[in-house]
Design goal:
Number of strands of chain A: 2
Distance between the termini of chain A: 76 Å
Helix content of chain B: 25-40%
Oligomer: heterodimer
Order of helices and strands of chain A: HHHEEH
Structural class of chain B: alpha+beta
Largest interface: A-B, 23 and 33 residues
CATH class of the largest domain in chain B: Mainly Alpha
Number of helices of chain A: 4
Radius of gyration of chain A: 21 Å
CATH topology of chain A: 3 helical TM bundles of succinate and fumarate reductases
Largest sheet of chain A: 2 strands, antiparallel
CATH superfamily of chain A: Fumarate reductase/succinate dehydrogenase, transmembrane subunit
CATH architecture of chain A: Up-down Bundle
Largest sheet of chain B: 5 strands, mixed
Strand order of the largest sheet of chain A: 1-2
CATH architecture of the largest domain in chain B: Orthogonal Bundle
Structural class of chain A: mainly alpha
Number of domains of chain B: 2
CATH topology of the largest domain in chain B: Fumarate Reductase Iron-sulfur Protein, Chain B, domain 2
CATH class of chain A: Mainly Alpha
Number of domains of chain A: 1
Distance between the termini of chain B: 65 Å
Shape of chain A: flat
Number of strands of chain B: 7
CATH superfamily of the largest domain in chain B: Alpha-helical ferredoxin
Strand content of chain A: under 5%
Radius of gyration of chain B: 21 Å
């Protein structure tokens, strides 16, 4: 039998297409969310016991870190909201409920819960 | 505007070539031509040694899938005018072994397709004299979009998960599993569980989503896989809460 040609995927496959690149960014933002969760746990762990950590939290570096992590976390959240109508397929009689409506309602719920948590913590 | 179209075509003749190469063909630009028309013109008039698959020429048979400028496309519905005056690069579908020129070996896909039992598995056999299994439009609507697959394999070619690990059951086969799971006449959800939830099944998918983007029939395999994940995860949760109950 003749030799078949195999074409393994190069390591740089995710740089070849914008959608692949965005997928990689989405996956990497989950690491940022995970790292920030660890930071929060550490902050709670050392609350009141170690002054150097709270000094670090108040530093400009920390503020910038929070801004970057917030942006990454918002992007990550957006991808989950966009996924909702794919998983949650709802029907109104014989008509499928518009995917954008499901994503929109999910986004509004997310904003309301976030607002509620902010109000509770900042009040 | 140039009245010529240049197609740069992937060539691989295993008996002659150690490595693949690209060969340029120049054809007269025709606004109404699709890429497949140009390929057939090359085969008939310029170079009869060129090999590629095609059959129906109208987006039904799923035979003429190729990479057109890096995107998996059915060449019978990819118009040359959308690329003109640029050169059009035609390659075999990625992630599959190449037998010759643009012809891929689809054996792996053909083995995966039946692995998810893509047929009706009724709860109990009903005698023929009972007549048709009727469905309401709402029941048909539940699965219809997942039933439009023409096995063209563009989704496998777009899926980097399959490209990295060919053991992955893949988008079309899993979408077909969900098509039957959603059918009111079917009771095979439990029967399909082993194949669908195997390591190389739904959990291998990382939801890149490109399978849905390239599907010429609007099947949305990425959505089907996410629905399968939720459905079988709920089954697992139910089995924890009610070890003796739930779906079998």
């Amino acid at each position: 039998m003749s030799q078949e040609l195999t074409r393994p995927l190069p390591r740089t496959w995710w740089l070849k297409k914008a959608s692949y690149f965005l997928f990689m960014i989405r996956e990497l933002t989950s690491l940022a969310v995970f790292a920030y969760a660890l930071l929060l746990i550490l902050a709670l762990w050392t609350a009141g016991a170690d002054a150097s950590f709270s000094t670090f939290l108040n530093s400009p570096v920390s503020v910038w870190l929070h801004v970057v992590v917030l942006a990454l976390a918002l992007f990550h959240t957006g991808t989950w909201i966009a996924l909702t109508p794919k998983v949650m397929v709802l029907w109104r009689d014989d008509e499928r409920v518009e995917p954008d409506l499901i994503a929109g309602v999910t986004a509004i719920l997310f904003l309301m819960v976030t607002g509620g948590v902010l109000w509770l913590t900042l009040a | 505007m140039s009245d010529q179209t240049v197609l740069e075509v992937h060539r691989y003749l295993p008996d002659e070539d150690a490595e693949p190469r690209f060969q340029s063909y120049e054809v007269t630009y025709k606004e109404k031509w699709v890429v497949l028309d140009a390929m057939n013109h090359i085969k008939a008039e310029i170079d009869p040694t060129l090999s590629f698959r095609w059959s129906c020429r109208m987006g039904i048979c799923g035979s003429c899938g190729m990479m057109v400028n890096g995107e998996p496309k059915l060449t019978c519905e990819t118009f040359i005018r959308d690329y003109h005056p640029d050169t059009i690069k035609v390659e075999p579908l990625t992630h599959f072994p190449v037998v010759r020129d643009l012809v891929i070996n689809m054996e792996d896909f053909m083995e995966k397709l039946p692995s998810v039992s893509p047929w009706l598995i009724p709860a109990e056999d009903e005698p023929l004299e009972d007549g048709e299994h009727q469905q309401t439009p709402a029941q048909v609507a539940q699965y219809q979009r997942f039933s439009m697959c023409i096995n063209c394999m563009l989704c496998y070619s777009a899926c980097p998960v399959y490209g990295l690990d060919s053991k992955f059951t893949g988008p079309a086969a899993l979408a077909l599993a969900q098509r039957y799971n959603l059918d009111s006449r079917d009771d095979g959800h439990g029967h399909r569980a082993d194949a669908v939830t195997a390591h190389e099944g739904i959990w291998e998918s990382t939801y890149v989503g490109e399978c849905t983007q390239v599907c010429p029939k609007g099947v949305d395999p990425a959505g089907a896989i996410q629905m399968l994940k939720l459905s079988y995860a709920l089954d697992w949760a139910k089995s924890l809460v009610m070890p003796r109950g739930g779906r079998t």
